[in-house]
Request: fold
Amino acid sequence: MKKKVLFVFGTRPEAIKMAPLVHAFKAQSSLFKTVVCVTAQHRQMLDEVLELFKIKPDYDLNIMQDGQTLYHITASALCRMEKVLSDEKPDMVLVHGDTTTTFAAALAAFYQKIPVAHVEAGLRTYDRYQPFPEEANRMLTDALCDLYFAPTATSRAALLKENISREKIFITGNTVIDALHMALAKKKPVANVILKKLLASRVFGPAAPLVLVTSHRRENFGAPMENVFHALNDAARVHPAMTIVYPVHLNPRVQEPAHRILGHTANIVLLPPVNYTDLAAAMYRSSFVVTDSGGIQEEAPALGKPVLVLRAVTERPEAVKSGTVRLIGTNRKKVFDEVCRLIGDTRQYQRMAHAVNPYGDGKAAVRSVQAVAYYFKMRSKKPTEFRP
Reply:
């Protein structure tokens, strides 16, 4: 008898990482009926990913509003999920990662005693305010779950420390690697006109590096983010052959300082937010990445790109340990020094670029399907764990 699985997600990063799973479950239509619900916590950026991966939601809660708060997102998602769950009566709800949608959907399923599987479970910084509110969201979600898809052995160890049964945890690798491979395989042309022209007209390399920047985290708003922007501006002026490309998040607290501090430097290119395939293309062509993002810490190493992380702590320590990622914080001098070091120190660059990617092999979605089938006794053998 088929089991009904309900996917719930609401942001672009969630959609990217859930897309391979949605397709993997749909490919097993003899075992599972797949239902997709989006909260649209992020509207425009979510829709772009849905279109890219050809996913049509069965439910669209459309909760996003101007100036939305965490209170609004949590309450709206929680209340609107009640009817979806009551109508569909799924056998399992799948949520991803650490967004407010993730926590609200897990809580809604718990209220109706529906099993919850958590994709990308077990990530921890052990500081509930970094990242905020994501660290709390994932801990609260893990407290409500029945099945855990840990991307790495480190993530499993964190769950075991919290007294979660080993039998409920499956090391799958991270589905973002599956999604990255899917996006690059599509070979879609670059859509952003400025980025397309830049990538077509320049040969980037050691003498003329391309640095991809993403920065948008709440905890970096204000002085920390301005420090980073000043450091990038300093580095761009010291290294005029370098090109910095920065797709700027739509949040006014990012837009204003980015354009004020970086908008007048010739070798810094500020773009509006780009679609996922454009971002993947820029990452593929880049020399290295400077970011405060979570997912890019996983994606860039899969492409052999060193990553400088604009945070004091990370929930993804595996790449730091392997050497492909370095935590540099937001101190102006530190950020400047680390960017310049990767440009000037060929040995250091090569060491980071050739480190082992610890996050996945492109088969995380398949392992996750197998784990759910095993949970429902539709499969007798546990899936083979991902090992880097």
Observations:
- The chain has two domains: 3-174+360-375, 192-353.
- The two ends are 35 Å apart (CA to CA).
- The mean pLDDT is 95.
- The longest helix spans residues 70-88.
